[in-house]
Amino acid sequence: MKYVLLLLVSFSVFADDHDSTTEDKIKAALDSDIRTEAEKERDRNRLPVSTLKFFGMKHDMKVIELIPGGGWYTKILAPVLRDEGELIVALGTGRVSDALLDKDGFDKVKVSASDAKIYRKDGERFYTIENADIDVKKADMVLTFRNYHNFSEEGRMAMNDAAWSTLKMGGIYGVVDHTQRHMEGDNSENRRRFDPVKAIKEIQAAGFELVDYSDLHYRPDDELRYEVGRKSVTGNTDRWTLKFKKIKK
Question: Is the pLDDT of residue 8 over 80?
Fold first, then answer.
């Protein structure tokens, strides 16, 4: 019994050290000179330490960032995962590849699905994705931040299927996006918002189980009425933060 208790205590201490190492690495990445002052200013709102902790990211994981955009999160994830983990950016990687991946410290970041085609069909309001397959298997985690709203149903399904295919069984899919009122129809003010209930239903249909949600990005003064770029809202949008796990379809 004493041996079992000692094992449990030792494991608990190791787990705490493991988590603190990841958190220390995230905080060090936030202070990096590669990040602009404008990017650092957004830390107060985007809360990257707490967000990544909620998703359960560890510094030795294989992590895929979908649609990295200009690399705001890539600049945090890459140094955290560089030594013992692995970061792969996939889908819509042109901007981050051109502007960031040739910089010091980003040499180990891999690019997948670079030939994916992201475009609007004629007359469509939102984007779709072709060739979305990610040439990586058994990833621990897939993350995407404020991208879900940009895509048509076809595009969202392609993104969710790509995440499911690349993750190991039990792997985590973390999604953050701007909140739209439940069941509200499309209008000129909510183009960059998405109904979280609809997102949950779609992602579950792709073979994921909803594990948890977080109110980290809940903003009571965002009335969900206006476009996220408006001066009264920008930088303070209400966002849903959802954590899913891959299960058998």
Answer: no
